[in-house]
Amino acid sequence: MSLTVDIKFVQSALDRFGNNYHRMGVASTSGLGGVPPEMFDGEIDAEGWVGWEMLPSTLSQEDIVRLESEFRIDFPPLFRAYLLARFQLFDQIYSAQYDQAIFNVDVPSNNPLGPIRDLINAWIPLLSASYIPFAQWGDGWGPMCFDTENRNDNGDCPIVWMDHELLIPLGEDACRNRQSVLPYVNLLYPSYRDFFEDTFQTKWHPR
Protein backbone atom coordinates (compact mmCIF):
# COMPACT_ATOMS: atom_id res chain seq x y z
CA MET A 1 0.00 0.00 0.00
CA SER A 2 1.08 3.58 -0.54
CA LEU A 3 1.91 5.88 2.35
CA THR A 4 -1.14 8.00 1.53
CA VAL A 5 -3.44 4.96 1.77
CA ASP A 6 -1.80 3.87 5.02
CA ILE A 7 -2.18 7.34 6.55
CA LYS A 8 -5.89 7.43 5.68
CA PHE A 9 -6.34 3.96 7.20
CA VAL A 10 -4.60 5.02 10.42
CA GLN A 11 -6.49 8.32 10.60
CA SER A 12 -9.82 6.52 10.30
CA ALA A 13 -8.85 3.98 12.96
CA LEU A 14 -7.58 6.66 15.36
CA ASP A 15 -10.74 8.74 14.90
CA ARG A 16 -12.94 5.76 15.77
CA PHE A 17 -10.71 4.73 18.65
CA GLY A 18 -10.70 8.25 20.06
CA ASN A 19 -14.48 8.21 20.40
CA ASN A 20 -14.16 5.50 23.08
CA TYR A 21 -10.95 6.68 24.76
CA HIS A 22 -10.90 8.57 28.06
CA ARG A 23 -9.08 11.61 26.70
CA MET A 24 -7.85 13.29 29.86
CA GLY A 25 -4.28 14.19 30.78
CA VAL A 26 -2.22 16.40 33.02
CA ALA A 27 -2.24 19.91 31.59
CA SER A 28 1.13 21.26 30.45
CA THR A 29 1.41 25.04 30.48
CA SER A 30 5.16 25.14 29.89
CA GLY A 31 7.80 22.77 28.64
CA LEU A 32 7.22 19.21 27.46
CA GLY A 33 5.11 16.42 28.90
CA GLY A 34 1.40 16.37 29.58
CA VAL A 35 -1.25 17.87 27.33
CA PRO A 36 0.09 20.77 25.21
CA PRO A 37 -2.07 23.91 25.41
CA GLU A 38 -3.02 23.72 21.73
CA MET A 39 -4.53 20.27 22.39
CA PHE A 40 -6.68 21.36 25.36
CA ASP A 41 -10.34 20.40 25.02
CA GLY A 42 -12.04 22.34 27.78
CA GLU A 43 -10.87 23.93 31.02
CA ILE A 44 -8.20 22.62 33.40
CA ASP A 45 -9.87 21.12 36.47
CA ALA A 46 -8.92 21.72 40.09
CA GLU A 47 -6.45 18.83 40.06
CA GLY A 48 -4.66 20.00 36.95
CA TRP A 49 -6.27 17.61 34.47
CA VAL A 50 -7.72 18.61 31.12
CA GLY A 51 -9.44 16.93 28.20
CA TRP A 52 -7.50 16.74 24.95
CA GLU A 53 -8.39 16.60 21.29
CA MET A 54 -6.60 15.16 18.30
CA LEU A 55 -5.17 17.66 15.83
CA PRO A 56 -4.12 17.41 12.19
CA SER A 57 -0.46 16.53 11.94
CA THR A 58 2.02 19.00 10.49
CA LEU A 59 4.79 16.42 10.25
CA SER A 60 6.13 15.57 6.81
CA GLN A 61 7.55 12.39 5.37
CA GLU A 62 10.92 14.15 5.40
CA ASP A 63 10.68 14.53 9.19
CA ILE A 64 10.35 10.76 9.51
CA VAL A 65 13.19 10.16 7.08
CA ARG A 66 15.45 12.44 9.15
CA LEU A 67 14.57 10.52 12.31
CA GLU A 68 15.29 7.21 10.60
CA SER A 69 18.57 8.56 9.27
CA GLU A 70 19.51 9.77 12.75
CA PHE A 71 19.35 6.20 14.07
CA ARG A 72 20.10 4.40 10.77
CA ILE A 73 16.83 2.50 10.90
CA ASP A 74 13.77 1.90 8.72
CA PHE A 75 10.34 1.82 10.35
CA PRO A 76 7.61 -0.45 9.00
CA PRO A 77 5.45 1.50 6.52
CA LEU A 78 2.32 1.47 8.69
CA PHE A 79 4.26 2.81 11.68
CA ARG A 80 5.47 5.72 9.54
CA ALA A 81 1.82 6.35 8.74
CA TYR A 82 0.95 6.19 12.45
CA LEU A 83 3.50 8.90 13.23
CA LEU A 84 2.17 11.07 10.40
CA ALA A 85 -1.57 10.54 10.84
CA ARG A 86 -2.58 12.72 13.79
CA PHE A 87 -1.24 14.62 16.78
CA GLN A 88 -2.65 12.48 19.61
CA LEU A 89 -1.93 11.30 23.15
CA PHE A 90 -2.82 7.61 23.03
CA ASP A 91 -0.02 6.68 25.41
CA GLN A 92 -1.93 3.78 27.01
CA ILE A 93 -3.62 1.20 24.83
CA TYR A 94 -4.77 -2.37 25.25
CA SER A 95 -4.23 -5.69 23.52
CA ALA A 96 -7.49 -7.58 23.19
CA GLN A 97 -5.54 -10.62 21.99
CA TYR A 98 -3.40 -10.81 25.13
CA ASP A 99 -5.70 -9.00 27.60
CA GLN A 100 -2.77 -6.72 28.35
CA ALA A 101 -2.18 -2.99 28.74
CA ILE A 102 0.58 -1.40 26.65
CA PHE A 103 2.52 1.84 27.07
CA ASN A 104 2.36 3.28 23.58
CA VAL A 105 4.36 6.10 21.99
CA ASP A 106 2.05 9.03 21.37
CA VAL A 107 2.51 11.99 19.01
CA PRO A 108 2.06 15.25 20.98
CA SER A 109 1.74 18.46 18.98
CA ASN A 110 4.60 20.25 20.77
CA ASN A 111 7.12 17.40 20.39
CA PRO A 112 5.65 14.87 17.96
CA LEU A 113 8.70 12.66 17.53
CA GLY A 114 9.99 13.09 21.07
CA PRO A 115 8.33 9.99 22.57
CA ILE A 116 9.63 7.59 19.92
CA ARG A 117 13.07 9.21 19.97
CA ASP A 118 13.24 8.94 23.77
CA LEU A 119 12.21 5.28 23.73
CA ILE A 120 14.77 4.39 21.07
CA ASN A 121 17.49 6.19 23.01
CA ALA A 122 16.51 4.35 26.19
CA TRP A 123 17.16 1.01 24.47
CA ILE A 124 19.60 2.09 21.78
CA PRO A 125 21.92 -0.95 22.12
CA LEU A 126 19.10 -3.10 20.73
CA LEU A 127 19.36 -1.37 17.35
CA SER A 128 22.64 -3.19 16.75
CA ALA A 129 20.81 -6.47 17.36
CA SER A 130 18.22 -5.53 14.68
CA TYR A 131 15.45 -4.59 17.12
CA ILE A 132 13.76 -1.15 17.04
CA PRO A 133 11.85 -0.25 20.25
CA PHE A 134 8.45 1.40 19.65
CA ALA A 135 6.32 0.67 22.75
CA GLN A 136 6.48 -0.95 26.19
CA TRP A 137 4.73 -4.15 27.18
CA GLY A 138 2.53 -4.00 30.25
CA ASP A 139 3.21 -1.37 32.88
CA GLY A 140 6.65 -0.60 31.47
CA TRP A 141 7.82 -4.21 31.73
CA GLY A 142 10.16 -4.00 28.78
CA PRO A 143 10.52 -2.83 25.19
CA MET A 144 8.29 -3.96 22.37
CA CYS A 145 10.35 -3.97 19.19
CA PHE A 146 10.25 -4.33 15.44
CA ASP A 147 12.32 -7.39 14.53
CA THR A 148 13.94 -5.97 11.42
CA GLU A 149 15.98 -9.08 10.68
CA ASN A 150 12.75 -10.90 9.89
CA ARG A 151 11.17 -8.08 7.88
CA ASN A 152 8.29 -9.12 5.59
CA ASP A 153 8.28 -8.55 1.84
CA ASN A 154 6.06 -5.47 2.29
CA GLY A 155 8.49 -3.91 4.77
CA ASP A 156 6.50 -4.78 7.88
CA CYS A 157 8.16 -6.50 10.83
CA PRO A 158 7.24 -9.05 13.49
CA ILE A 159 6.61 -7.57 16.95
CA VAL A 160 8.54 -8.95 19.92
CA TRP A 161 9.10 -7.93 23.51
CA MET A 162 11.85 -8.49 26.10
CA ASP A 163 11.58 -8.31 29.88
CA HIS A 164 13.66 -5.35 31.11
CA GLU A 165 14.55 -7.26 34.29
CA LEU A 166 16.34 -9.79 32.10
CA LEU A 167 17.82 -7.36 29.59
CA ILE A 168 19.38 -4.86 31.99
CA PRO A 169 21.66 -7.41 33.74
CA LEU A 170 23.05 -8.39 30.33
CA GLY A 171 24.67 -4.99 29.93
CA GLU A 172 24.87 -2.77 26.87
CA ASP A 173 27.48 -4.80 25.00
CA ALA A 174 25.47 -8.03 25.22
CA CYS A 175 22.29 -6.17 24.21
CA ARG A 176 24.04 -5.17 20.99
CA ASN A 177 24.56 -8.85 20.16
CA ARG A 178 21.52 -10.52 18.64
CA GLN A 179 22.54 -14.00 19.77
CA SER A 180 22.81 -12.78 23.37
CA VAL A 181 19.36 -11.19 23.23
CA LEU A 182 17.52 -13.98 21.40
CA PRO A 183 16.88 -16.17 24.49
CA TYR A 184 14.85 -13.31 25.98
CA VAL A 185 12.77 -12.49 22.89
CA ASN A 186 9.03 -13.20 22.97
CA LEU A 187 7.09 -13.09 19.70
CA LEU A 188 3.78 -11.21 20.00
CA TYR A 189 2.53 -10.40 16.49
CA PRO A 190 3.58 -11.35 12.95
CA SER A 191 3.47 -7.68 11.90
CA TYR A 192 2.85 -4.12 13.07
CA ARG A 193 -0.41 -4.15 11.11
CA ASP A 194 -1.61 -7.08 13.23
CA PHE A 195 -0.60 -5.19 16.37
CA PHE A 196 -2.35 -2.03 15.19
CA GLU A 197 -5.57 -3.82 14.32
CA ASP A 198 -5.58 -5.60 17.69
CA THR A 199 -4.97 -2.50 19.81
CA PHE A 200 -6.76 0.27 17.90
CA GLN A 201 -9.97 -1.61 17.20
CA THR A 202 -10.91 -2.21 20.84
CA LYS A 203 -13.39 -0.22 22.91
CA TRP A 204 -11.30 -0.52 26.09
CA HIS A 205 -9.84 2.71 27.41
CA PRO A 206 -7.67 3.57 30.44
CA ARG A 207 -9.11 5.39 33.42
What are the defining features of this structure?
SMI1/KNR4-like, 207 residues, six-stranded antiparallel sheet, 8 helices, alpha+beta, single chain
Could you please describe the fold and organization of this structure?
By secondary structure, this protein is an alpha+beta fold. The chain has one domain (3-199): SMI1/KNR4-like. The chain has helices spanning 3-18, 61-71, 77-85, 114-122, 164-167, 172-175, 178-181, 192-199, and strands at 24-26, 49-51, 55-56, 86-87, 92-95, 100-104, 131-137, 142-147, 159-161, 186-189. The strands form three sheets. The chain has a six-stranded antiparallel beta sheet with strand order 5-6-7-8-9-10. A two-stranded antiparallel ribbon has the order 1-2. Strands 3-4 form a two-stranded antiparallel sheet. Helix 1 crosses helix 3 (77-85). The model has no long low-confidence stretch (mean pLDDT 94).
